[in-house]
Amino acid sequence: MHDAHADTGPADGAATADVIRQALDGHPAQRGDLEDLYKDLHRNPELSFAEVRTSGIVAERLRDLGYEVTTGVGRTGVVGVLANGEGPRVFLRADFDALPVAERTGLPYASTATAADQDGHQVPVMHACGHDMHVTCLLGALRLLADARASWSGTVVALFQPAEEIGKGAQAMVDDRLFARFGTPDVVLGQHVGPFPAGALGAHPGPALAATDALRVQLFGKGGHGSRPETAIDPVLMAAHTVVRLQSVVSREIAGGDTAVVTVGSMRAGTKDNIIPDDAELKLNIRTYTDEVRGTVLAAVERIVKAEAAASGAPREPEISPIGRFPVLVNDPDATGRTVGALTAHFGPEAVFDPGPATGSEDCGTFATASGAPLCFWFFGGTDREQFAAALEAGTVARDIPSNHSPLFAPVVQPTLDVGVAAMTVAALAWLAPAG
Amino acid sequence: MHDAHADTGPADGAATADVIRQALDGHPAQRGDLEDLYKDLHRNPELSFAEVRTSGIVAERLRDLGYEVTTGVGRTGVVGVLANGEGPRVFLRADFDALPVAERTGLPYASTATAADQDGHQVPVMHACGHDMHVTCLLGALRLLADARASWSGTVVALFQPAEEIGKGAQAMVDDRLFARFGTPDVVLGQHVGPFPAGALGAHPGPALAATDALRVQLFGKGGHGSRPETAIDPVLMAAHTVVRLQSVVSREIAGGDTAVVTVGSMRAGTKDNIIPDDAELKLNIRTYTDEVRGTVLAAVERIVKAEAAASGAPREPEISPIGRFPVLVNDPDATGRTVGALTAHFGPEAVFDPGPATGSEDCGTFATASGAPLCFWFFGGTDREQFAAALEAGTVARDIPSNHSPLFAPVVQPTLDVGVAAMTVAALAWLAPAG
Amino acid sequence: MHDAHADTGPADGAATADVIRQALDGHPAQRGDLEDLYKDLHRNPELSFAEVRTSGIVAERLRDLGYEVTTGVGRTGVVGVLANGEGPRVFLRADFDALPVAERTGLPYASTATAADQDGHQVPVMHACGHDMHVTCLLGALRLLADARASWSGTVVALFQPAEEIGKGAQAMVDDRLFARFGTPDVVLGQHVGPFPAGALGAHPGPALAATDALRVQLFGKGGHGSRPETAIDPVLMAAHTVVRLQSVVSREIAGGDTAVVTVGSMRAGTKDNIIPDDAELKLNIRTYTDEVRGTVLAAVERIVKAEAAASGAPREPEISPIGRFPVLVNDPDATGRTVGALTAHFGPEAVFDPGPATGSEDCGTFATASGAPLCFWFFGGTDREQFAAALEAGTVARDIPSNHSPLFAPVVQPTLDVGVAAMTVAALAWLAPAG
Amino acid sequence: MHDAHADTGPADGAATADVIRQALDGHPAQRGDLEDLYKDLHRNPELSFAEVRTSGIVAERLRDLGYEVTTGVGRTGVVGVLANGEGPRVFLRADFDALPVAERTGLPYASTATAADQDGHQVPVMHACGHDMHVTCLLGALRLLADARASWSGTVVALFQPAEEIGKGAQAMVDDRLFARFGTPDVVLGQHVGPFPAGALGAHPGPALAATDALRVQLFGKGGHGSRPETAIDPVLMAAHTVVRLQSVVSREIAGGDTAVVTVGSMRAGTKDNIIPDDAELKLNIRTYTDEVRGTVLAAVERIVKAEAAASGAPREPEISPIGRFPVLVNDPDATGRTVGALTAHFGPEAVFDPGPATGSEDCGTFATASGAPLCFWFFGGTDREQFAAALEAGTVARDIPSNHSPLFAPVVQPTLDVGVAAMTVAALAWLAPAG
C-alpha cells in the first residue's frame, strides 16, 4: 500500500471487520446468478441514453431486493433507495452504457449487437469499458447490504447512471433534480474495472482522472470528380494534414513535465474512390489536468485546424463544436483515506495500490462537485493475474494487455466480480453507521 | 473545329444532310416529354447495379417505340434492337447509374433519395454525373431513328448500361454474351455530358480518357482508449500520414510531361472521439494514360502504404485490393473523323472542338475493345453559356463551373437536351446506310 | 526524325553540304587539344559570375583564332566577333558557369574544387550541367568557322555567357548593351548536352523549356532550448510541414494534362541538436509552361507557406523573395525547321529527334526575346550509347542515367565532343551566307 | 520552501551563520570587477573544447587568488585547488563553453563572435546558456573562500569544465585522471542560472535533470536536377516527412504521465534551389527520465527514420549515430537537504523553491557518479523580477521569458551575480569544516 494511506485505519463509527465479513458471507450464494447476469449484460450492450433493456433489468432486480426504485432519472437512469434508519446517506454509483465498438474477444458471450448511433448510422455495440461489470458488482453489493441491514444504519442511494461514455449522464441525473428528490450525499463512492491484475484495487487521492474535452471538427472543401482535383478543394487531404499537425500540440507545446493527450478517434470523409467529397469530419478527445494546459491545448487545436483549412484554400472556416466534456475527477483525500483504509483492512495491503493520476476521464465526480460531497472513486483489476505478470516481465503491458475501449477488452469474470462486489460492499460499510 | 477533322466530310454511303434534317424535324414534338422524363430520372437516381426503376422506364419506352427489348443484360442492363434491313450494325450506348452524393443544386427536381450502399450504409444518391441526361437523349434519338426508319437501313442496337460508375457495367453486359445475342457492332457510339458550354460538342481521336485503378486500402492498427495512445497503434494517424505521403507520387515520381492523378476519395476510421479504432480504410482512384506511368504509380502507392504502416509499427501489413478498373478509352481516329465530320456538317465548325485527352475514365470503350469495333465517344456541354463565358473571362472555370461528381453538378436542361438528342441521331445516321 | 522536320531541306542561300564537309575536315587535327581543354575545364569549375579562369582561357583562345575579343560583358562574359563580309549576323552561344555540387563521378579529371558561395559558405564546385562541354564545342566550331572563312560570308558573334545557373547571365550581357555594341542577331543558336545517347540531336519547335521561378522562403519561429519546446516555436517543424504541404500543389491544384514542377532544393535550419533555432530557410524551384499554371502555382505556394507558419503560431509572417527567374524558352518554328533540316542532312534522320517540351530551363532565349531574333536551341546527347540502350531495355532510364545537376553527371567525352563541335558548325553554316 | 526541506537545518560541523556573513562581507569590494569580468566573458564566448581565452583568464585569476592551478585537464579544463588543512574535500564546479547561436539581446556587451564549428563552418557564438555567469560567480566565491580561509578547514577543488554543451567535458576531465590527481570529493556542488526570478534558488532532490540522447541521422536519397524529380529520390522531402512523423513519438507512444521530449534541432539538406541533393542530415535531441521511456523513444525514432526512408524509396538505409549522451542528473537527497538547508537559512525560505524535475540535461552529475560522491546541483534565477511577475500574471512565462539557448537569453547582471556568488559561497561553507 502507498505510504500515504498507511496510517488511515478504519474510521470511527464505521462498520467493523466482523460486520463486513458477515455481510460478505452471503456472496457465494449469489455468485452464479451474478456471473450469468454479467454475461447477459455483456451480450446485450446498449449505447448511451439508449440503455432501455439494461435499466429495465436493473429496476426489476432493485425492486426484488427491496429498494425503492425510480426510473427515468436523467433520461434512462435508475435510482434505488434503501432507507435504513438514521445515519449517513451514501451514494453508490455504477454507469451502464456501452460503446460503438465491434467486439473481437471471441468469448462465448461476446456481443454481436448493432444499433443506430446519434447520426442514424448502424454501428456495432460492445461493453468495451466494463460498465456491465460495474452494474453487476453494484447489484451484488446492494443485495449484501440489503441482507445485512440489521447491522448498519443510514441510507443507501444506488445510482445506475446512463451515458457516461459521452460525459452527459451524471449531469443529466443531477439536472433531473437528483439531490432534491433523493437527498444530499455524505459521500459518493464509485468504482471502475481496468487493465490491472484481477484482485488489485487502486485509488489515488487528489486529481485522479483527467479532464476531457470531446470536440467535433467539420472541415469544408469543395467536391468534384476524383480525376479533376484541380477543380476541387480536397477535404480528405485537409483532414489528413490536420490530424498529422495535431500531433505537434503535445510534442511541441506542452512541457515535458505536464500532461496532455490529444486523440483523433474518428476521421470520416467521402464514400467513393472517384468523388472528392465536400467535407470531412474529425472527432477529437483531449485530456488535461490543469486549466492552463487545457487552455493551451484548446487554443493550439483551434489555431491548427483553422490554419490547415487555410493552407488548403478552404472556402469556409472549419466548425469546431463540443461533443462533451468531463471535468477533472478529484478524489477527496480524507474520504479516499477512509475508504482505502477499509479496503486495505479487508483485502490486505498487498492488494491495494496508488495508481497515480490516469489520463482516463469519468463523470462520476459530477455527483460530488454538484452536491459538495466528498468522492472516492477507485479501480479494480480485471486482467488475468498470470497474463499480467508475464507482460510485466516482458515489459509489454502497454502493448499486450487490452485496455478499456479496445475490441479485445474483456475482464476475466473471476476473481474480478467477487472483488468488485466485495470492494463496493466494504466501502459502503466504511461509511454507513453501525447499527444501533 | 480542330484542323485534324477539317477534311473529314460525310462518309460515302451515310445519310445525307436532308435525311438528317428530316429525322430531326420530329424532335420538337417530343421535347416536353423528354424534359419531363429527364427531371423524373434526376429526381429518382439509383446506385450502380440497382437501376431497377430506371431500367423499367427505359424498357417500357423502348417497347413503345417498337424496339425489341431484352432486360437483365449484365444484371440490370437493357438492350433495345431495331432491325431495319441490310446495313451496318450501330451500337448506341447510354449509361444510367447514379452516385452516392448528397445533391446541393437547389433545383426543384433535385434528388433527396437515399439508398443502401454495398456495405449496407444508407447513403444519399444523386445523378451527379449526368447519366440521366444520357438516357433521355438516347431515348429521344431512338424515337427519331424509329420514326425515320424509311430513310435508313441497318440495325440499331441501343445499350442502356448499368454500373458505369464502378467500372463494371460494360464488362457485365459483355460477359452476359452481348455480342453473341445482339451481334457484333460495326461501330460503337456514346456520349457524355460535361462542364462545357451547352451546345458544344468535343471529341479527341486516340487515347481520350484515362485508365483508372480504384483501390481499397485497409490499414491495421491496434485499438484502445483515446486517453491511452501508448497502449494502441493509432490507425487514424497512420491513415492521415498515408494520405499526405501519397501526394508525393504525382509531385515527385512522375515527370512533368507525363500525366497521373492519385485521389483518395474516401478515408474512414473510427466512430467515437475517445476510442482509438483498430483499423482505417482508404479508397484510392488513380488515373494514367500509359502502362509505364501506371506501373510507376501503382508501385509507389504500394511502397508508401506499406512503409507508412511500418512507420506506425502496424501489427499487420496493409491490404490493398482492387475495387475496379477502367482501361484507357481510345477513340478510333477514322471513326472519330467520320463522326465528327457529320457533327460538324450539322452543327457548324464553331460548335465542335477537340478537348484533348481528359483524366476522366469511362468503360464505354469496353464494348469496342471486346468486339474489335471502332469507337467514337464524344462530350456534349451542359453548362449555361453565359455562366461559362463569365468564368472563362474571370479565369475561374476550374473553380466555379461545377464538374461531374460535384453535389452542384446540374446540366441546364436546354439546349443540352436538344443538342444531345440531335448529336446522337446525327452520329447514328452517319453510320447507318441510306435507305435502298 | 520527327515527321514535322522531314520536309525541311537546306534553306536557300545557306552553305551546301560540300562547304560543311570541307569545314569539318579540319576537326580531327584539333580533337586532342579540345579533349584536353574539356578535361581541364571540368577539373576547374567556377561558380556563377566567378568564371574568372574560364573566361581568361576563352578570351585567349578566341584571340588566337583571330576573333575580336571583348571581356567583362555582363560581369564575366566574353564576346568574340568574326566579321567576314556581308551577310547574316549569327549569334552562337555557350554558357560557362558550374554548380555547387560535390562531384562523385570518380573520373580522373573529376573536380575537387571548392569556393565561397554567395553567402560566404565554402561549397564544393562541379561542372554538373556540362557547360564545360558547351564551351569546348563552341571553341571547336569557332576554329572550324574561322578556318573556313573563305567559303562563307557574314558575321559570327560568339557569346560565352556567365551565370546561366542562376538565370542572370544572359540578362546581364543584354543589359551591358550587348546589341548596341555587337549588333542585332539574325538568329541565335545554342546547344545543351543532356542525358541522351551520345550522337543524338534533339530540338523541339515552340515552347521547349519551362519557365522557372526560384524563390527563397524564410520562416520565422522562436528559438529556445531543445528540452523546452513549449517555450519555443519550432521552425524546423514549420519548415518540414511546409515542404510536405507543398507537394499538394502539383498533386491537387494542377490538372493532370498541365505541367508544373515544384522542388524544394534546399532546406536549412539550426546547427545543434539541443537548440531550437529562430528560423529556417527553404529554396524553391518552380517550373511551368503557361502564365495561368504559373500563377496558380505561385499563389498556392504563398498560401501554403503563410498558412503553415500560422499553424505553427509563427511570430512573423514568412518572407518569400525571388532568387531568380527564367522565362519559357521558345524555339522559333521556322528557325528550328531550318536548323534541324541542316542537322538532319548532315547527321542523317536517325540521329535527330524531337524531345518534346522539357521541364528544364535556360536563359539562352533571353538573347532572342530581347533582340527580336529567332532562336534555335537544341540538345546533344552525352550518355554512352550502350549504357543508354541497356537502361532503355530495362525501363530504368529515369533512375539509372545520371541527369544534369547530379553529382554523377559526366558526358562521355566522345563522340559527344565531336558531335557537339560538328552540330554547332553545321547550324552556323546553315545560317551564314555562302561566300560570294 | 518545500516541506521536504523544512527540517533540514545547518548540518553539524558546518560553518555557522556568523562565518558565512563574515565571508560574504568581502563581496561588495569585488562586485564591480566581477561585473566587468562577466561582460567581458559574455562578449567573448568560445565553443566547446575551444575555451582557450576563457581558460587563460580563469587560470590567471585563480593564481592571483592563491589557488594551485592545473590547466589542460580534459583538454581545455582548469582545476584550482586551495588546500586549507584537515577536512572535507569539496568540489565546486562551473562550466564555461558557449553555443553556436547568433545573439539578439541588443545588450551593449552582446557577442558578435563567430568561430569554425566541428564541421569547419563559420558559425556565430553566444553565451546563450549563462556559463559566463557560472564562471564569474564561482571566481567570486573562490575569492571569498580564500579570504575567509581562517574560518574554515578542508580543501576546495574548483572545476572549470569545458564542453558541457556537447555532454563531453565532465567525462573528459574524469578521464584525465581527475580524482587520482585532485582527490576524491566528499561532495560535488554546482549551480546553473535559469529563467527564474533573479534572487530565487531552486533544487530538486532525486532525479532533477533528464537524460539526453543526441543523435545524428543521415538520410540518403538520389540527387538530380530540380526540374526532373522523377529521376531523383528527394532527400529534402524524406527529411521533412521524418521530422513530421517524429512528433508522434511523444504524442502517441509515451503515456500522458511519463515524460519525453524529442527535438530536431537541426535539419540541413541541399544548397541550391534547382539541385535535388543526394542526402539530408537531422540532429535530434531526446530527453527522458527512465530507461523504459528512453528505450521506447529510441526504438520509435529508429523505426520511423527507417520507414520514412523506405516510403521514399531510399537507395540506402539511413544512418543513426550518437552525437553525445547525458545521463539523468540525480541530486543526492541528503546532500541536497543539507545544502538547501544552508541556503534557506541564509536567503530565507521565500527565496528557495523546489522546481521539480526539469527536462534540461547537465553532465555535472558525472563528477558525482564517477567518484561515488553525493551531488547537489541547484538553479539560481536570472530574470528581472518585475518582468517575471508580469509574465506570470499574464500566464505567458513560457512564451515571454527567454529561456536558456534562446538568442535572447541574457540574465540581468544584478542581483543574479550577487546571489550566485553568495549561493556558491554558502553552499561550500555548508560542507567545509569550521576552523579548528
From TrEMBL, chains A, B, C, D:
One annotated GO biological process: diaminopimelate biosynthetic process
Gene3D superfamilies: 3.30.70.360, Zn peptidases
Positions with a binding annotation for Mn(2+): C129, H131, E165, H192
The keyword NAD belongs to this UniProt entry's keyword annotation: no
Alphabetized InterPro entries for the sequence: Amidohydrolase, Bact_exopeptidase_dim_dom, Peptidase_M20, Peptidase_M20_dimer
Superkingdom of origin: Bacteria
Location of the Peptidase M20 dimerisation domain: 216-310
Cofactor descriptive note: The Mn(2+) ion enhances activity.
Alphabetical keyword list: Hydrolase, Manganese, Metal-binding
Gene Ontology MF terms in the entry: metal ion binding; N-acetyldiaminopimelate deacetylase activity
Protein name: Amidohydrolase
Species per Swiss-Prot/TrEMBL record: Yinghuangia soli
